[in-house]
Write a structure and sequence with these properties.
The complex is a heterodimer. Chain A contains 15 helices and 22 strands. In chain A, the strands form five sheets. In chain A, strands 1, 2, 6, 7, 8, 9 and 17 form a seven-stranded mixed beta sheet that branches. In chain A, strands 18-16-10-21-22 form a five-stranded mixed beta sheet. In chain A, helix 3 crosses helix 10. Chain B has ten helices and seven strands. Chain B has a five-stranded mixed beta sheet. Chain B has a two-stranded antiparallel sheet with strand order 6-7. Chain B is elongated. Chain B starts with a strand and ends in a 6-residue tail after the last helix. The chains are: A alpha/beta, B alpha+beta. Chains A and B meet through helix 3, helix 4, helix 9 and helix 14 of A and helix 1, helix 2 and helix 3 of B.
């Protein structure tokens, strides 16, 4: 078996991975760093982020206000030391990206422009029109090209973390183009593989978002944190699930029901005003807006569409000029995929699975409890997002914690010996597993696509916007059956050349681990908080559950849930209040 | 009986085939389906070995470029309804080596992109603590359209010059060089000029602008190439007239 060796290895080449790779080089330019990614880095899902990136930069705003918005938005389930570090470093990171060439939208005098965003009390969201993630990712990727110390494994699929002597020392990966299976060893590994929205049938997430890093860490013995907290974005296009950015509402868009009524006023989110108001109505947090949709549907006031009920996003009063300048991608997507022009017509939208608050448990340096393993970005749970992430916090999060994880991993790697030979035996075992269970196997009965569909429907039925104990318990049994059936997968494709039938099957097995961890965590959290709403336990219970759930894989493969107290620094748990007092958001 | 539509899909496996062949699949016809939905249907229900790239399915990641009835297209943004009821032919992007089925090798582009130095070059870096480089909306507009390139490779598949001369840097790489050259914060145009002028392929580029025509993001690589030619010609002319001081 071929083996290559690096000091620090990044798994995932999106925003967090590329930022971390640069950080490694900045900390110690002698370190040999490599990025292994199952797609070319500029295809990574950071590319799809639209609305913006929050960071305090304007006078009249403060780090404490950003921290409070984040913490209250998170329903107090975030670690406040992490939030404080995050809000402090976010502006520096966004400026650094400006210095690297990111084409941020500007004010007439040339300064950075900011916009309002959901759950934020001040305008602090930097944006590049409504393609912020795209521009950030391409800026980061193109910037990495000038670092000769950063090697890349483009289109390599990681199947396993190699752990020996209590320390992660590399990975096994498949080169897609040739089918070559090899070990890539390293003194430290950073997971930056993003989220897992594809566990559900209806999601904004790209096809590559299959929870790979979460499952790799979980199988290697690192716990996952807060996996029951899954964000629905309130405005996805029906059928495709394509995201219509929250910026459409921060620019002044309304959400209306079948009667043209701004229904959010009925859900304790404030009173409607013509212009956007901070932390009010359409600028409320995503969990509350998605829950309001379900309630509105129960009252029979949504609109029946070919792909289920919808409400309408009304942008018509914004005018063509503002839409073309600040929301061009929204218009392009509506025209292309919905055959609707938002300048003149109402846009049908419904809540859609968008973001994973939970993930691989890390400290504020991106370190997991497993030595040598780090994580940053959506794959990780630091945690700053708690029970509900605020829009425009995830892009600065991947910069801040990508940089932190890169720096910490570089320091760790500088002190380590090269990986031992024991892990090579493990790597060869992994090669045999891939050959025997997949590539060379004959006689399996199950199609990965069939199991995937079944899993997605189990998850939508039990772990959606509202959950309950019996449904979750049944789902746990059903997922376990799918796990058993997945041992019997059959591939159509036994080729070594770009075998996407194999990667699809491996992704399914990753997603099943992630789904089980979500359901186990959701079942045990008998309270309602943020995005986790239990109809059988409708109240928040701080006495018992002001704590992160921490799920580990037991010896029998089943998830085991423990709890870890939340870190409170300066903001004791309080009530989440939205909708008052009126403070206009668009007044510039 | 539900309506169906036929897809003729190029298949090629280097382990098995001497040359690419077309295989026909019949898939449900739905008017809100894009070509990519039909490929996914085939892969999930009929033949898991069908091989292609895709990811965001919203026209921004740049993965799913293929030839659809002979034209380079993003298959996530190309509707079956535009071709029905006739069969739709799906082939790998032209002008590239094929790895398998609909997957092309794009290592050549990745190397060309890197040679363009597509990053901000400054004589002196301002510390981050001193804030942003100012850039007015008008200055942003000068390069913005070139920054929209998603590296989808449709322009290379459409480019008659790249088809004949693989050493040609090609439309996207030149557009991205120009994206930085025109950025008011950048001071690296001279360095990039050296790379751009190393090869003569650019002079073979006609004004036809097939690249600009097929760009799904309304980037104008043909415009970038013409601008560059003008710069290059001016530089050459200056160096002839002012051999001792021309810059």
């Amino acid at each position: 078996m071929d083996v290559t060796n690096h000091d620090v290895l990044l798994v995932g080449g999106g925003g967090a991975g590329l930022r971390a790779a640069i950080a490694v080089s900045e900390v110690n330019s002698k370190l040999n760093v490599a990025v292994v990614s199952k797609v070319y880095p500029m295809r990574s899902h950071t590319v799809s982020a639209e609305g913006g990136a929050a960071g305090v930069i304007k006078s009249g705003d403060s780090l404490d206000e950003h921290a409070y918005d984040t913490i209250s938005g998170a329903d107090w389930l975030c670690d406040q030391d992490a939030v404080e570090a995050f809000v402090k470093e976010a502006p520096e990171e966004l400026l650094r990206l400006e210095h690297w060439g990111c084409p941020w939208s500007r004010e007439p005098d040339g300064h950075i422009a900011v916009r309002a965003f959901g759950g934020m009390k001040k305008m602090r969201t930097w944006f590049a029109a409504d393609k912020t993630g795209f521009h950030m990712l391409h800026t980061l990727f193109q910037t990495t090209l000038k670092y000769s110390a950063i090697a890349r494994y483009d289109e390599w699929f990681v199947t396993k973390l190699l752990v020996d002597d209590g320390r992660v020392q590399g990975v096994v990966a498949i080169e897609l183009a040739t089918g070559k299976i090899q070990a890539i060893t390293a003194k430290a590994v950073i997971l930056c593989t993003g989220g897992c929205g594809r566990v559900f049938p209806f999601t904004t997430n790209a096809s590559i978002k299959t929870g790979d890093g979460m499952a790799l860490a979980y199988r290697a013995g690192a716990p996952l944190k807060d996996m029951e907290f899954i964000q629905y974005h309130p405005t996805g296009l029906p059928f495709t699930g394509i995201l219509i950015t929250e910026a459409a509402r921060s620019e002044g868009g309304y959400l209306v029901n079948k009667d043209g009524y701004r229904y959010l006023q009925d859900y304790n989110l404030g009173t409607p005003q013509p212009k956007p108001v901070f932390r009010s109505m359409e600028l409320g947090p995503r969990d509350r807006l998605s829950q309001a949709f379900v309630k509105e549907h129960e009252k029979g006031r949504t609109i029946a569409g070919p792909y289920g009920p919808v409400v309408h996003l009304d942008l018509r009063h914004l005018g063509e000029k503002l839409i073309n300048t600040n929301l061009p991608f929204v218009r392009e997507l509506c025209l292309k995929y919905q055959n609707i022009d938002p300048v003149k017509e109402l846009v049908p939208v419904r809540p859609v699975i968008h973001y994973m608050m939970g993930g691989v448990s890390t400290d504020i340096h991106g370190a997991t409890p497993l030595a040598g393993l780090y994580a940053a970005g959506e794959v990780a749970c630091v945690s700053i997002n708690g029970a509900n992430r605020l829009g425009s916090n995830s892009l600065p999060e991947l910069l801040v914690f990508g940089a932190r994880a890169g720096a910490a991993a570089a320091q760790f790697a500088s002190l380590q010996e090269a990986p031992g030979t024991a892990i090579l035996a493990q790597a060869i075992d992994e090669q045999h597993r891939l050959e025997e269970n997949f590539l060379c196997k004959s006689g399996g009965r199950e199609r990965a696509s069939t199991l995937r569909e079944e899993m997605q429907h189990i998850m939508e039925d039990c772990a959606g916007i509202y959950r309950n104990g019996p449904a979750l318990a049944a789902a746990q049994q059903n997922l376990h059956k799918l796990q058993e059936r997945s041992a019997n997968l059959a591939l159509d494709d036994h080729s070594f050349t770009f075998n996407t039938d194999l990667t699809t099957a491996l992704e399914l097995t990753f997603m099943l681990e992630v789904a089980e961890s979500m359901v186990a965590s959701a079942l045990q959290r008998t309270e309602s908080r943020g995005a986790h709403q239990r109809t059988d336990f409708p109240a928040r219970n701080d006495e018992k559950f002001l704590a992160h759930s921490l799920v580990s894989r037991a010896a029998d493969g089943r998830p085991r849930v423990d709890y870890l107290p939340v870190k409170i620094t300066r903001w004791p748990p309080g009530e989440r209040v939205y909708g008052q007092p009126a403070q206009k958001a668009g007044a510039n | 009986m539900a309506e169906t539509i036929k897809l003729e899909v190029a298949r090629y496996s280097p382990e098995r085939d001497a040359a690419p062949r077309l295989e026909t699949f019949e898939v449900p016809y739905r008017k809100d389906w894009v070509v990519l939905d039909a490929l996914n249907y085939i892969k999930d229900k009929a033949d898991g070995s069908l091989t292609y790239r895709w990811s965001c399915r919203m026209g921004i990641c740049g993965s799913c470029g293929m030839m659809v009835n002979g034209e380079p297209k993003l298959t996530c943004a190309t509707f079956l309804a535009d071709y029905a009821p006739a069969p739709v032919r799906v082939e790998p992007l032209r002008n590239f080596p094929v790895i398998r089925d609909l997957v092309i090798a794009m290592t050549d582009f990745m190397q060309k992109l890197q040679r363009m130095k597509p990053w901000l070059i400054r004589k002196e870096e301002k510390p981050v603590s001193e804030g942003e480089y100012l850039q007015t909306p008008e200055q942003l507009d000068l390069y913005k359209q070139y920054s929209m390139c998603i590296n989808c490779m449709l322009c290379y598949a459409a480019c008659p010059v790249y088809g004949l001369d693989p050493f040609f840097s090609g439309p996207a790489a030149i557009a991205l060089a120009q994206r930085y050259n025109l950025d008011s914060r950048d001071q690296g145009a001279k360095e990039r000029f050296t790379t751009l002028s190393q090869h003569e392929g650019i002079w073979g580029c006609t004004f036809v602008g097939e690249c600009t025509e097929v760009c799904p993001k309304h980037v104008d690589p043909a415009g970038a190439i013409q601008q560059y030619k003008l710069t290059a010609a001016t530089q050459w002319f200056k160096s002839m007239l002012l051999p001792w001081g021309g810059k």
